[in-house]
Amino acid sequence: MEIRKIRLGNLLLPSNVLMAPLAGYTCYPFRMLAYGLGAGLCCTEMVSANALQYQDRATRRLLITTEQERIRAVQLLGGNPAVMERMAGSELLKDFDIIDINMGCPVPNVFKSGEGSALMQDQKRAAAIIRGCKRSGKVVTVKCRTGIREDDMFAAEFVRMCEDAGADMVTVHGRSRSMMYDGRPYEKEIEAAKAAVSIPVIANGGICSAEDAENMMERTGADGVMVARYGLENPFIFSELTGMPCEKTAFQVVLEQTELTARYYDETYTLGYMKKLASNMMKKRRGTKQYKERLYRSGSLEELREVLALIFDRGNERG
Ligand SMILES: Cc1cc2nc3c(=O)[nH]c(=O)nc-3n(C[C@H](O)[C@H](O)[C@H](O)COP(=O)(O)O)c2cc1C
């Protein structure tokens, strides 16, 4: 695919291959990995604006970042325009350059609270949230779906509202809320959304190879792609797509991820995150299934490193 930079206000994304926010995964170490491999933008996982008001430990942990992070984007989840505005402009988020607003989460509890994808059926409130977040002075982006139901999709109309309300970029996940995470993304909906606005539109959903990324760009005319689940299985996809040179092996990557996570998070978090990341990265590695149980049983960083060596230390394999 054609690699381009994307300008958002005073920020310049180094490429148009973005890493999606993924709850439980896109912590600071993973974002550093993806940026190092050429990703144009990475984002925290969704952070509840309501929870942020109470600043509990688990929520504060989602905001860990350093100046080393190339461009810092935080995703906010919330349905109350006043709370969203207050949190977007709060000291807690002072280190972040971009506020991404979650308008796509399909989970029943979130939807019932009028947050995430529920905002797609209340465009007035969605617009008020975008305008409120813009008053923080930061770049504001939106991540949405194609609609609520598969038989009633309206991505173009929704993206137009986002642009009118002041959004700087929109990512369209080409599935409706009812599809959750399965089924073929509707490229036509993304194409219509791209044609409807002049802000950058990013296409997301079902990208599992460089060829998929290419096809997505061609069929939708989008300004860039956002890789999600596949980025966990094969983080090297960013290097493949962007041409960013990478000499690292998968083993080096998991070891570096372990060290970086342990530096900024406690041992429990580090073990939990590394077990999930490693089990994604080993999906297509033959002969490694036998170590999965041991991976999940490891109770210390020492044990973790040992089992990571068994799984990943095989010459300079990447896959
Ligand atoms: C485990 C998991 C966690 C996710 N967390 C978030 C999130 O925090 N914020 C968000 O906007 N989307 C989230 N998503 C949706 C992804 O960003 C993406 O839109 C979706 O997985 C479709 O892309 P894919 O088919 O390439 O995986 C999550 C998806 C999964 C599977």
What is this structure's SSE topology?
Layout: E1 6-8, E2 11-13, E3 17-19, H1 28-36, E4 46-48, H2 49-54, H3 57-61, E5 73-77, H4 81-88, E6 98-103, H5 108-112, H6 123-134, E7 139-144, E8 147-149, E9 152-153, H7 155-165, E10 169-173, H8 187-196, E11 201-204, H9 210-220, E12 224-227, H10 229-233, H11 237-242, H12 250-264, H13 267-281, H14 292-297, H15 301-312
Parallel strand pairs: 3-12, 4-5, 5-6, 6-7, 7-10, 10-11, 11-12
Antiparallel strand pairs: 1-2, 8-9
Helix pairs in contact: 1-12, 4-6, 6-7, 7-8, 12-13, 12-15
Structure described in brief:
The chain has 319 residues and is of the alpha/beta class. The protein has helices spanning 28-36, 49-54, 57-61, 81-88, 108-112, 123-134, 155-165, 187-196, 210-220, 229-233, 237-242, 250-264, 267-281, 292-297, 301-312; strands at 6-8, 11-13, 17-19, 46-48, 73-77, 98-103, 139-144, 147-149, 152-153, 169-173, 201-204, 224-227. The strands form 3 sheets. An 8-stranded parallel sheet has the order 3-12-11-10-7-6-5-4.
